[in-house]
Write a structure and sequence with these properties.
- The structure holds 2 protein chains of 2 kinds.
- Helices cover 77% and strands 0% of the residues of chain A.
- Chain A is built from 12 helices and no strands.
- Chain A has helices at residues 3-30, 47-54, 56-89, 96-108, 111-129, 137-162, 166-173, 178-189, 191-207, 210-215, 223-232, 237-260.
- In chain A, helix 1 crosses helix 12 (237-260), helix 2 (47-54) packs across helix 12 and helix 4 (96-108) packs across helix 6 (137-162).
- Chain A is globular, with a radius of gyration of 23 Å.
- Chain A starts with a helix and ends in a 6-residue tail after the last helix.
- By secondary structure, chain B is mainly α.
- Chain B has a two-stranded antiparallel ribbon with strand order 1-2.
- The chains are: A mainly alpha, B mainly alpha.
Chain lengths: 266, 301
């Protein structure tokens, strides 16, 4: 490669990453700004972090979001794995096209439609059979699990397509029953896919504001809903501080994951 | 039953009709029926009702009224057209930014590639909302960009950078750029460098090599990236809500307003049905047609 071209590629990368990261970095810098006017620098201060940590509304919402994310990710992995196994191992079962289509629907469907349809169903159910009488926690978990299970199924299906069925066959030939094969052979082999799927589902849930806006009840305001309502009203230094914390935590976790997997990807 | 390369051996584990099969197929079927098929059927049913002041605010009456409204009132078609236009422009600009980046990453030294890719994905793992908020702090009349431009004496009064189509485009490009880079990188990285060398040996100049070798061979990545940006962008709500203004009606935001502000459930439902028919179904068919075939193996649609 000529020096000229290498230089061009470096400039491209420099500009591209500057575009991706400068807004986030400036957000973090201004989280240490003393002024309430987020974008006018008046001096260094950590007071917004203090206020953030005393803000019960945000702390409660953050805790609720973490619980919702953990529950929905677990549910999404459980059902998404079964769906992935069904697609990868059961070949052409009846109505497979419908199964695959329904599974992929939340990936293609605009979030407003997913949210609207789930809410309208919960309302109609309540009308028809008196359950669920109020919106809230359970509904957000169900909605997020429905959204994420498609991602889990895709990851699991890809992982299953990538390894040799002979291992499962060998176990079966040696007398293992199908359920035993699944628990002892298939599941351990796809474990990395389950971890990746769980993390992705967890992140999707933590990040969702649109679907939660539809199905959340008065007492179940998740963190994105709190951020959204405060951001709609204008800038808030506390949101800057919260953003800084989120970015640092996510980066640290990503670095940790990369370190744990070092050498695994050449 | 098609013959797979594994012959009949898999029968012992996965073909058996029994509790295993019933559970693996039954549980996801139940879930998908209850939380995707049933909800969407209810949306279709409510789209055929009329809005009332009752609780819940609809009643089954003269069908197709809400559809007549969204076809006759130009507001809705304009919002749809606007959303498609904004999404298409944004995904094209994403391609213009994303292709050189994906190319540069794919051509970087192997030991840097992992880190460079991770840096593309990392923003996706942080909050979407916060990344849009970051642009609000930059674009406002009192935001950083205007401050810097005024301090440098380039402009006298703040520019209107926010609450317009420009800001919506920018927000979409910023939020969805990683979705463009990843499939592009995958297809560029697969490209056999020998082909480019052969073209060069035959006297083809760099630009010509790009147009007749690199670009056609990475077209699958281009299409995948365009779809990954275009599809979510069309139905986007958060970005037009936070960065858009009165001149940028988008169909996803209109659905939201009909539902939450106007409490017109039938119209919101019929927007959802129309959007699904006009956009989601064609895209699903397109994706299905473009999906890589897995040969004789019967995995994956």
């Amino acid at each position: 490669m000529t020096r000229h071209r290498a230089g061009g590629l470096l400039i491209v990368l420099g500009l591209g990453y500057a575009f991706l990261y400068l807004p986030i970095l400036l957000l973090i810098v201004f989280s240490f700004n003393e002024s309430r006017l987020v974008t006018v620098w008046t001096g260094f201060s950590t007071k917004w972090y203090g206020e953030l940590l005393r803000n019960e509304r945000i702390l409660d919402a953050a805790w609720l979001s973490l619980v919702v994310a953990a529950c929905s990710a677990t549910l999404a992995v459980a059902i998404g794995t079964l769906a992935g196994v069904a697609l990868a191992r059961y070949g052409r079962f009846r109505l497979r096209w419908l199964f695959a289509g329904l599974l992929a629907a939340p990936l293609i469907m605009p979030e407003v439609i997913t949210g609207l349809s789930l809410l309208l169903m919960f309302v109609s159910m309540d009308q028809a059979v008196g359950w669920p009488a109020s919106r809230g926690f359970g509904m957000i978990v169900v909605a997020h699990a429905t959204l994420s299970m498609a991602f889990v199924a895709v990851i699991v299906q890809a992982r299953l397509a990538g390894f040799d069925r002979a291992v499962e066959e060998a176990a079966a030939d040696l007398g293992a029953r199908p359920a035993t094969v699944f628990w002892r052979i298939t599941l351990p082999l796809i474990a990395p896919a389950l971890v990746a799927g769980w993390l992705l589902a967890f992140t999707l849930s933590l990040d969702d504001v649109v679907i939660a806006s539809f199905v959340a009840g008065p007492g179940t305001t998740t963190l994105p809903l709190v951020i959204f309502s405060s951001v709609r009203l204008g800038l808030s230094p506390q949101v800057n501080a919260l953003a800084a914390i989120i970015v640092v935590v996510v980066s640290a976790l990503a670095a940790l994951a990369a370190w744990a997997n070092r050498g695994r990807f050449a | 039953m098609p013959v797979s390369c594994y012959g009949n051996r898999q029968v012992t584990v996965w073909r058996e009709h029994g509790p295993m099969r019933a559970a693996v197929l039954g549980v996801p079927w139940l879930w998908l029926s209850a939380f995707i098929l049933l909800p969407f059927s209810i949306v279709v049913a409510i789209s055929l009702s009329v809005a009332t002041d009752s609780q819940p605010p609809y009643a089954f009456g003269p069908v197709l009224d809400s559809y007549r409204l969204i076809v006759e009132d130009t507001l809705y078609l304009a919002a749809l057209g606007n959303a498609i236009r904004i999404a298409a422009t944004s995904s094209f600009v994403c391609l213009l930014i994303g292709y050189p980046m994906a190319y540069a990453i794919a051509r970087a030294q192997a030991r840097w590639r992992g880190l460079l890719l991770a840096l593309v994905i990392l923003p996706f793992w942080t909050s979407f909302l916060i990344r849009i908020y970051a642009w609000m702090t930059l674009l406002r009349p009192t935001g950083l960009i205007n401050q810097v431009l005024i301090d440098l004496g380039i402009i006298g009064a703040p520019l209107q950078l926010m609450n317009n189509a420009f800001a919506v485009h920018l927000g979409i490009i910023y939020a969805y750029l990683p979705f463009m880079i990843l499939p592009l990188y995958a297809s560029i990285e697969r490209l056999d460098p020998n082909l480019l060398e052969a073209a060069a040996d035959l006297g083809s100049r760099p630009w010509r090599r790009f147009l007749s070798v690199t670009l056609p061979l990475t077209l699958s990545g281009v299409v995948a990236g365009m779809l990954l940006v275009f599809v979510p962008a069309v139905g986007e709500f958060v970005i037009p809500e936070l960065l858009g203004g009165p001149d940028t009606p988008m169909i996803g935001r209109l659905l939201w307003i009909e539902f939450f502000n106007n409490r017109d459930w039938p119209v919101a439902a019929s927007i959802a049905v129309a959007l699904t028919a006009l956009l989601v179904v064609p895209v699903a068919i397109l994706q299905h047609m473009l999906a890589p075939r897995e040969g004789a193996r019967e995995v994956g649609p």
